[in-house]
Specification:
The complex is a heterodimer of chains A (199) and B (303). With 199 residues, chain A is α+β, with helices and mostly antiparallel strands. Chain A is 14% helix and 23% strand. The two termini of chain A are 27 Å apart. Helix content of chain B is 28%, strand content 21%. Chain B has 9 helices and 15 strands. In chain B, strands 5, 6, 7, 8, 9, 10, 11, 14 and 15 form a 9-stranded mixed β-sheet that branches. Chain B has a 4-stranded antiparallel β-sheet with strand order 2-3-1-4. Classes of the chains: A alpha+beta (199), B alpha/beta (303). Chains A and B meet through strand 4 and helix 2 of A and helix 2, helix 3, helix 6 and strand 7 of B. Strand 4 of chain A pairs antiparallel with strand 7 of chain B.
């Protein structure tokens, strides 16, 4: 019952959605079913097994985390990936019949696909980002505070433009803060409003 | 506090009980062991100048010296979750194991759900249900913030919970942390009794009976159910157990609780209950300087 921290209701689905651009990985299947936004469908292993146009594959998702953040696909060995709605991918470690119907969520929202630049969620970055070996940016405590307050900041960094995982030291551990977008010498905070804090 | 006069004859040291109910309650947090150890969480609080007290009965419950533990680094990172001390009792008693199938029948806003997930090491399947659509977003927010991935969130009425989404698969353990009149939260919510009336108590008791009966029906024989409320009213506690003992193949079993407590009541206002209800435990606010809580452990004996 009523014993937990206050939450901001807009957060859960509060991430910005860009449905306008192609996903760059649709393949050639012209036949096929369309995405059903009311159920959770498990991602196909590979493009050869894909029956829903535009759907990301497990292989592509693992490759994306490996390529962007250097995360070993083995980390996700116990997780299945599911799509509900256009492009929203969920990571789930339990068992459910496929497709999963009459459920509100499976595991956590994990990755936004069906757009030019795939975008990890803040929760996924916090959960799995400890294992990232590239495109992480170590911040000072002041920089980290600004980041989680939702502020953009100028920052010298010589990595690739795109989504990054900023970290800071917490009790001796480089702990991931969430997801940032690094462009034009600036680290933009994309921490959703409900997760932003004045720490 | 007049409402509590009805408990004068059943609560030991009633004046101490009333006095405790008048006092505020310090904020407690539970360490999310999916993210950090208790020592790491303590170190993180201390690194930002927040002193921390450890409670002696539970290794993952801390009382940091701040009104807003959510606005600290361990809070931001999901190393800790604001949760009243007694609220950590039911999941601890249910004791789910990694790999099991577990149902949390009244899950929102998710403090106990996330505790169950951590105890399961984020493996197996944890089905978290709530009938209130408005509270589901809080449940989802908290499970995701704490990095839980073994959870399936559903929005059904637990009294006639359908297993169709799961192809009929039943559960090893079930938590029924029932909606209740919340009398035991008076220290945190001083207005908890404002809308108290016996009609509401009786109405919510009917819902509780329905949910606990359904829990018995969807639990494997030999499986475990924990029934808990944050209220004192026997109508919502022992009377609910008595009803379900009569109608479903369950028994109340004993368990250890290293907090001061008293046994469940076998009589209330001329009504007597199955003697098994003495195995349930009542925690009063003056016992351990906490909120009030009721917890019973049941085992399903047959199909």
């Amino acid at each position: 019952m009523s014993d937990d921290e206050p939450v901001d209701d807009e957060t859960v689905d509060g991430e910005t959605v860009d449905e306008s651009s192609g996903d760059g990985s649709a393949g050639d299947e012209a036949d096929t079913e369309t995405n059903d936004g009311q159920q959770f469908d498990r991602l196909p292993e590979t493009a050869a097994e894909r029956v829903v146009e535009g759907r990301a594959t497990r292989e592509a998702v693992l490759d994306w985390w490996a390529e962007r953040f250097g995360i070993d696909p083995e980390l996700f060995a116990e997780h299945s990936f599911w799509e509900k709605g256009a492009g929203k991918i969920w990571a789930f470690s339990g068992e459910m019949p496929e497709p999963a119907r009459d459920v509100e969520s499976l595991g956590m929202t994990f990755l936004r696909t069906r757009q030019e630049h795939w975008k990890p969620t803040t929760d996924a970055a916090q959960r799995f980002g400890r294992h990232a070996s590239k495109n992480t940016i170590s911040l000072s405590d002041d920089e980290a505070s600004a980041f989680v307050a939702g502020e953009d900041q100028d920052l010298e960094w010589d990595g690739d433009w795109g989504y990054v995982i900023p970290t800071h030291d917490l009790a001796g551990r480089e702990e991931p803060l969430g997801v940032g977008l690094y462009v034009y010498g600036e680290l933009r905070s994309v921490v959703p409003k409900g997760r932003q804090r004045d720490v | 506090m007049e409402t509590f006069e009805r408990y004068r004859d059943v609560v030991d040291d009633f004046e101490a009980f009333l006095a405790a109910c008048e006092r505020g309650l310090p904020m407690a947090v539970r360490v999310n062991t999916l993210r950090a150890t208790t020592d790491e969480a303590v170190a993180a609080f201390e690194a930002e100048g927040v002193d921390v007290e450890r409670v002696d009965w539970h290794p993952h419950v801390l009382v940091p010296d701040t009104d807003k533990p959510g606005l600290t680094w361990p809070g931001y990172h999901g190393w800790t979750h604001g949760q009243e001390e007694v609220s950590a009792i039911p999941a601890t008693v249910l004791d789910p194991q990694p790999g099991e199938r577990v149902w949390d029948a009244c899950a929102a806003p998710g403090s106990k759900t996330t505790q169950l997930a951590a105890m399961m090491d984020d493996t197996g399947t944890l089905v978290a249900n709530d009938n209130n659509l408005g509270r589901l977003s809080a449940l989802r927010f908290n499970t995701e913030r704490l990095g839980v991935t073994n959870v399936v969130v559903t929005n059904q009425d637990s009294r006639n919970y359908s297993l169709v989404p799961f192809d009929g698969e039943t559960f090893d353990r079930v938590l029924v942390d029932a909606p209740c009149s919340c009398e035991g939260t008076i220290r945190k919510n001083p207005d908890a009794l404002d809308n108290w009336n016996l009609g509401h108590v009786e109405e919510v008791a009917r819902v509780q009976k329905g949910i606990l009966r359904r829990a018995a029906q969807v639990t494997e024989p030999g499986g475990t159910i924990v029934y808990s409320t944050c209220t004192f009213a026997p109508e919502e506690n022992e009377a609910v157990l008595d009803h379900v003992l009569e109608h479903e193949p369950v028994e109340v079993v004993d368990y250890d609780l290293p907090l001061e407590h008293v046994s469940g009541l076998t009589e209330w206002e001329g009504e007597s209950f199955d003697p098994q209800v003495t195995k349930a435990k009542r925690v009063y606010p003056h016992h351990n300087d906490t909120g009030g809580f009721f917890t019973a452990k049941l085992e399903v004996t047959g199909a």
